[in-house]
Amino acid sequence: MSRAFRFEDEKYLLLLLALPVIYFVMLWIHYRYLKRMKNWGDFSLIIRLMPGASNFRFHLKTILILLAIASAVIALARPQFGSKLTEVKRKGIEIMIALDVSNSMMAEDIQPNRLENAKLAISRLIDRLENDKIGLIVFAGDAYIQLPITTDYNAAKLFLASVNTDIVPRQGTSIGSAIRLALRSFSPESDKSRTIIVITDGENHEEGAIQAAASAAEQGVKVHTIGMGSPKGVPIPVVLPGGQRNYRTDHEGNVIISKLNEQLLRQIAAETGGIYVRANNARTGLKTIIDEMNKLEKQEIKAQVYAEYDEQFPYFAGLALFLILLDVTVLNRKNRHLAKFFEPSNEQELTS
Question: In principle, which of 93, 138, 233, 266 could form an S-S bond with 259, CB 3.0–4.6 Å?
Answer without folding.
Answer: 233
